[in-house]
Amino acid sequence: MFLKKGYDDFMQVIYIGETIWYAFKLLPFLRGNDRIKNCISYFEGAEFQPQDNTEKEILNNSAFLFQVMSKFYIVSIGCAEILYAIPALFSDGHDLPMPVWLPYSVTSSSVIYYVTYFYLCIAVVYTGFATSPLDPLIGGLVFQAVSQLKILKHRIQNPQNFVKEQSNTTGIYQTLAECVDLHNAILKKDFCEYEECFSWTIFNQFLGTTSVLCFICVAITTVPLASVDTIKYTSFFFVVNCQVLFYCYFGTLLYEESDTLVTAIYLSHWYEYPIETQKLLLTLMERSKQPLILSVEKLLDLTLDTFTEILKRSYSLVTILK
């Protein structure tokens, strides 16, 4: 099937644009499969496993929250794809969900039309569901680092829970030394592995989202407010924003958790520890003064400030297009 030429439908431009940008997002997965697999399974190492009930609760709560957000995101994409396809069914003519070239006439019979229509509906919805897991996957890896930072702060403030004897200063020192190793492992994951594997993917998502948002905003202004098209465009506007919000929200959580690590160390019982243990905590404090901020191609930070900036830039481009 080939797309018809010469049509001027904003929704088709949006759909095609999203598909093209998704193809660019997949390039890193074709070039470095082994490295990406290692990045995905990185937090399965022994040093990241929970050691008490509090840490298990932290991981369980994080997993539950992430599952709720991911399911909501995927369902939203499914609804947007369905709203994209349904209006054609209620049009005056034998319209299809998207304009395509066919070797036969869909108006020749109702059976041919409905079979073709539902086939294209399945193709459209399948595209949405097939591409939707990628964003939660990449964002979820950051959320795993957030959970590990919470566990790290718990171990720093309660090192006595991880030694056999609470008065065993050697055991406390060893526990805090393991906390330093855990912090180093998180840094390696986020800055070395994560940015190298997924920076290009996220950058293309941001670039494509800015362009698509412009067309959606222009499309909303060109249709009647009380119409099916308005609902269709609004649902796409919501989903496209969620794609970027996934990365920016989890990146902000990572920044906030790492930014409060120094406070967690200060609120521990450091004044009761020997000098060598205090020096260990001081070293960790100095290293934690610079919060973890993930960047995309060294150009954009994964924060909510970047998300709001994308919305501003999109609105600016809308005024130019109008």
Automatic annotation (TrEMBL):
Q: Which residues form a coiled coil?
A: none
Main location group: membrane
Top-level taxon of origin:
Eukaryota
One GO term in the molecular function aspect is:
olfactory receptor activity
- Subcellular location field: Cell membrane
| Protein keywords | Cell membrane, Membrane, Olfaction, Receptor, Sensory transduction, Transducer, Transmembrane, Transmembrane helix
Topology of this chain in the membrane: Multi-pass membrane protein
Name the InterPro entries for this protein: 7tm6_olfct_rcpt
Q: Name one GO biological process term.
A: signal transduction
Q: Which residues cross the membrane?
A: 12-30, 72-91, 111-129, 206-227, 233-255
Q: Which GO terms describe its cellular component?
A: plasma membrane
> Pfam families annotated for this entry?
7tm_6
Q: Does the keyword Protease apply?
A: no
Name recorded for this polypeptide: Odorant receptor
Q: Which organism is it from?
A: Zophobas morio
